Amino acid sequence: MKNSLKISFLAAVLFLFFGSLKAQTLEDYLQIAADNNPDVKAAYAEFEAAMQEAPQVKSLPDPTLTMTAFGSMVETRLGPQEARFSLMQMFPWMGTLETRGNVANLMAEAKFQAFLNKRNELFLEVSRQFYELYALEQQLSYQQDDLEILQNYKDLALSRVRAGSGALSDVLQTDLMRNESVTGLDILRLKKESLVVQFNALLNRPRTEIVILPQEIETGPENAIFDTPVSGNPRLAELKTMEESAKAQEKLAQKEGLPNVGLGIDYAIIGERMDMDVEDSGRDAIMPMLSVSLPIFRGKYKAAKKQAAFMAESYEQRRIGLENQLSAEMEAAVFQVREAQAMLKLYERQVESSEQVLNLLLSSYRNASSSFEEVLRVRQELLKYQLAVAEAEAAYLTALARIDYLSGKSFDYDNKN
């Protein structure tokens, strides 16, 4: 009974373990990266910090309370002054606080766009490495198959040598190719190990965490039309928001040059007169106060307005230049997609043709009507085209991911709502 329970428990554990190793989609890894990557989290924290600026600048300045106690009492008609309290609250010109808040909110929005761009850059890099790992996985499979096929070729050559119809050189040539295939397999494995470490670093996971890859990735239609504008790129939105913030800063500089108004009250504590009887003796004095700042030194306000106007122009020109740059990069990315599509189609045809030629050569070799060297040459070409297919497919998918990045399209991200 105990043994059956142990077996059932182990079976359940193994089921859960292997069930958890199911292939994860790229979107799964993008979500993990968005949740865990420290650079993205830092960019989002900067946005949250910028959001706290508006409540600060929109608040009124703290009121001023002045307290005075007279050592030698100042005599008034109603009696000696014993203490005096003054409370004053300054009010900026109408609309100043709102404009300050608008400037702060626009700066926070720019930080949010910077966060989106940082996240999209991460998504592009995760996608690139994911597709590279996918290509490596395909190449490892091709290389392993090649090693097994070469062993079959060696066995075929040995059987012909034993039968007296083959040459020992055919066996040695096969060993040479098998050695190359073994080395190529080892290099691919080392490359994959290195890339897994880099991939996990992007996801902020342990370096040896297993990366589960799909067996196949859909590459999309061959004649897809790419008419995607770059206007949605967060870098453009960031500069546009910075431009609006500078224009709001220009308005703020104008309002800062207007008077501030202060309202207050002055309260004096009066003691009773002891030397004579005076009506209302000892009555405290209350006086309302009004103060107005006089911004007569206009140079700093004019300079602040000009500074903001120049910054707005700077952001506008930078945005125009960046839009031109992104448009050029989009054209290059579309070309890379088309190029990868063409090369992928070519390599797939070459693989198909090479397989047909190889089958014919093997059939001829078994009938002693073709050379074994020609068989090995075509086999080597077939492997080269198979490896090239994987690389072209990864290049195509990476170019598509770059188009998404340039256009501002990205995986839905709702963890930071």
From TrEMBL:
<feature type="coiled-coil region">
    <location>
        <begin position="312"/>
        <end position="357"/>
    </location>
</feature>
<dbReference type="Pfam" id="PF02321">
    <property type="entry name" value="OEP"/>
</dbReference>
<feature type="signal peptide">
    <location>
        <begin position="1"/>
        <end position="23"/>
    </location>
</feature>
<keyword id="KW-0175">Coiled coil</keyword>
<comment type="similarity">
    <text>Belongs to the outer membrane factor (OMF) (TC 1.B.17) family.</text>
</comment>
<protein>
    <submittedName>
        <fullName>TolC family protein</fullName>
    </submittedName>
</protein>
<keyword id="KW-0813">Transport</keyword>
<dbReference type="InterPro" id="IPR003423">
    <property type="entry name" value="OMP_efflux"/>
</dbReference>
<dbReference type="InterPro" id="IPR051906">
    <property type="entry name" value="TolC-like"/>
</dbReference>
<keyword id="KW-0732">Signal</keyword>
<keyword id="KW-0472">Membrane</keyword>
<keyword id="KW-0998">Cell outer membrane</keyword>
<keyword id="KW-1134">Transmembrane beta strand</keyword>
<keyword id="KW-0812">Transmembrane</keyword>
